[in-house]
Specification:
Elements lengths: L26 H10 L3 H6 L16 H13 L5 H10 L1 H7 L6 H11 L4 H13 L7 E10 L7 E2 L1 H23 L11 H20 L8 E2 L6 E5 L2 E14 L2 H4 L4 E9 L8 H12 L5 E3 L7 H10 L3 E2 L18 E3 L4 E3 L5 E10 L2 E8 L2 H6 L15 E4 L3 H11 L2 H7 L6 H11 L10 H24 L4 H11 L1
Parallel strand pairs: 1-7, 7-8
Antiparallel strand pairs: 1-5, 2-3, 4-5, 5-6, 9-10, 10-11, 11-12, 12-13
Helix pairs in contact: 1-3, 3-6, 3-17, 4-5, 4-6, 7-17, 8-9, 12-14
C-alpha cells in the first residue's frame, strides 16, 4: 500500500486552536470543568481571593495552578519541575493554562501554601459520588500499605548508632579544625564547606539523640526524614510510612460501569494497623455524611479493644483473627465452658480450671489466669494435645475482651460472614495495586508526616477523579454538567 507523506515543517492554513487538538472526553477537559465549577466557598477555604490584588505584578490565576496540579496527579506527574516542563511541551497542560508557563517555584509555592486545604477537594469528590448515588456504602474495606519515604535506609540509627556517629563526627570536626589552623593563608570570613557541613551534621545528630533518649521517644530515627519509620513490607525492610485507605464499590446500575471509590485516606507513622480501624471508619462516615455499612478488614486490625469499640459505636466489622488456625484445635479455650457461679472453666474432658491470679504485662491488658489440677491433667487422655506442662497443667489466660472476641469468632464462623468477607480482596487491594503498579506511587516525594499526608490525600483525590472521569465521559453533555457542577 502507498505511504502517507508527512512534513515536519508544514504550515497551518488557518491559525489553530489548542482546543481543537484536545478530544471532548479528554481528562484535561474533565479537570478543567471541575476546577472552573468550584465555588467561591472552596477558594475561600484555600485563603484565595479570585478577584486578585489591584496593585503589583499580575499573578497566575489560581484556577490555572490548581488545574496543573490536579492534572499532574491525574497523569502521574507529582514533581513541580516535571509539571513546569509539561506546561511547556504537553498539549493538555498548554490548553489548561491557556499557553501560560508557570515555573516550578510558582507551582511549588501554590502547592506548599494550599496542600492542607486541598483535603476539601477530596471530601467534595466523595460527597458528590454519594449525592449522585454512585457509591454503594453497604460495604466498605479498609487496608494499609507501606510506601517508601524520601529517605535512605542506611540513615536510620538507634541510640547506640547515633552515639557512634556523633563520636566520628566530632573527631572529623577536630581534624578539620586542626587542618585549617595550620594553614598559612589568611582566614576566611566563613567556615570551609566541609567543616560547616560536619557542624550541621553534629547538630542534627545531637537533636536526634535527644529524641531517641527521651521517655516517649522513638527506638530509631532517620536523619533524612525523622518521621519516616523502619517498616516491613513483603518480607523486606523499608523506611517509609503506613498509607491507609477506605474503599467502597460503585453502583453499576447508576454509574454505568463497575469501579472503586476511596472514601477516606490517611498516612500514619505507626507500622501497626490496629490503631487505625476506628479512625478510618469515622473518617469515612464524616466524608460520606452517612453511617456506613459493613467494614471489612484483614487480620492486622483484629483485636479485642477494636471489637469492643466497634460494638460500642455500632460499627459492624468483619475481620479474621491472626491465630485463626488455632481455633480448629478441639482444646482451644473457646471450647472450655464458663461457670459464672464459681468463677471457673470446665474443660472438654470435664475437669475444672479455677482462678489463680492476674498476670500483668507491659503496655497490654492484664490477663486472668485459670489452671486445672496438675494430677488430673497428667492423667487426662488429652495430655500432650491440650497441654504438655507436667509441672502446672493446663492454663487459660482470659483477657478483658474475651466476650467480644468469642462473639466475633461465632460471627465469622457463619456462612454469610464468610461469603461477605471474600469481597474484601476485590475492593481495597486493587486500589493499592493500581496506585503502585499503574501510577507509580511507590515512594513519597516529600519528607515529614505533615507533608506526606497531604500528598497521599491528593493521590486519593486523583484516584477518585479518574473514576469520576470514566463515568463522566460515558454520559451526555447535560449529565456531564450535573456531575462537575455537583463537585463545585
Amino acid at each position: 500500500m502507498p505511504l502517507r507523506p508527512f512534513y515536519r515543517d508544514q504550515d497551518w492554513l488557518l491559525p489553530p486552536r489548542l482546543g481543537d487538538l484536545i478530544p471532548d472526553d479528554h481528562p484535561a477537559r474533565f479537570v478543567a470543568a471541575v476546577v472552573d465549577g468550584l465555588d467561591r466557598a472552596f477558594w475561600a477555604k484555600l485563603g484565595i481571593d479570585l478577584d486578585g490584588e489591584e496593585l503589583g505584578a499580575p499573578a497566575y490565576h489560581p484556577r490555572v495552578l490548581l488545574s496543573v496540579w490536579l492534572y499532574g496527579f491525574f497523569s502521574n506527574v507529582r514533581s513541580a519541575r516535571k509539571l513546569e516542563a509539561a506546561c511547556r511541551d504537553q498539549l493538555p497542560c498548554l490548553w489548561l493554562t491557556g499557553c501560560q508557563t508557570p515555573d516550578h517555584n510558582t507551582l511549588w509555592r501554590f502547592y506548599r501554601d494550599h496542600r492542607e486545604e486541598m483535603r476539601e477537594l477530596f471530601k467534595r469528590t466523595v460527597k458528590t459520588a454519594v449525592r449522585l448515588g454512585l457509591v454503594d456504602l453497604v460495604l466498605q474495606a479498609v487496608d494499609g500499605s507501606k510506601i517508601a519515604g524520601n529517605a535512605a535506609r542506611d540513615r536510620t540509627y538507634d541510640e547506640a548508632g547515633l552515639k557512634r556517629l556523633l563520636e566520628r563526627t566530632e573527631l572529623a570536626i577536630r581534624e578539620l579544625e586542626d587542618q585549617n589552623s595550620t594553614r598559612q593563608e589568611p582566614s576566611s570570613p566563613r567556615l570551609p564547606d566541609k567543616l560547616a557541613k560536619a557542624g550541621r551534621l553534629r547538630e542534627q545528630v545531637v537533636e536526634a539523640l535527644g529524641q531517641v533518649m527521651g521517655e516517649e521517644g522513638p527506638e530509631r530515627i532517620n536523619l533524612t526524614d525523622e518521621d519516616a519509620g523502619l517498616m516491613k513490607s513483603r518480607g523486606k525492610m523499608l523506611v517509609g510510612y503506613n498509607a491507609q485507605a477506605m474503599v467502597s464499590p460503585l453502583k453499576p446500575e447508576v454509574a454505568g460501569r463497575t469501579g472503586l471509590f476511596v472514601t477516606a485516606a490517611q498516612v500514619v507513622t505507626d507500622p501497626d494497623d490496629h490503631a487505625q480501624l476506628v479512625p478510618m471508619v469515622e473518617a469515612a462516615q464524616e466524608n460520606t455524611g452517612e453511617g456506613n455499612g459493613t467494614t471489612l478488614g484483614d487480620g492486622g486490625y483484629h483485636s479485642g479493644p477494636n471489637l469492643a469499640e466497634c460494638e460500642k459505636r455500632g460499627i459492624e466489622v468483619l475481620m479474621p483473627e491472626a491465630g485463626e488456625k488455632k481455633l480448629d484445635n478441639p482444646y482451644h479455650k473457646d471450647h472450655f465452658g464458663r461457670d459464672e457461679e464459681t468463677n471457673s472453666y470446665i474443660c472438654p474432658q470435664g475437669q475444672r480450671l479455677t482462678f489463680r491470679g492476674v498476670k500483668e504485662r507491659q503496655d497490654r491488658p492484664e490477663m486472668r489466669v485459670y489452671r486445672g489440677s496438675v494430677k488430673a491433667c497428667r492423667a487426662c487422655p488429652a495430655f500432650g494435645q491440650c497441654t504438655k506442662d507436667k509441672q502446672q497443667g493446663r492454663a487459660l489466660e482470659v483477657g478483658p475482651y474475651e466476650v467480644e472476641l468469642r462473639r466475633h469468632r461465632n460471627l465469622m464462623a457463619t456462612e454469610e460472614a464468610k461469603a461477605t468477607y471474600k469481597k474484601r480482596q476485590e475492593l481495597v487491594e486493587p486500589v493499592f495495586g493500581i496506585l503502585k503498579e499503574l501510577h507509580g506511587i511507590r515512594r513519597f516525594l516529600l519528607r515529614g508526616l505533615l507533608n506526606v499526608d497531604p500528598e497521599w490525600v491528593l493521590v486519593a483525590t486523583a484516584f477518585n477523579l479518574r473514576t469520576l472521569w470514566r463515568i463522566w465521559k460515558g454520559w451526555s453533555a447535560e449529565r456531564r454538567k450535573l456531575l462537575t457542577g455537583a463537585i463545585g
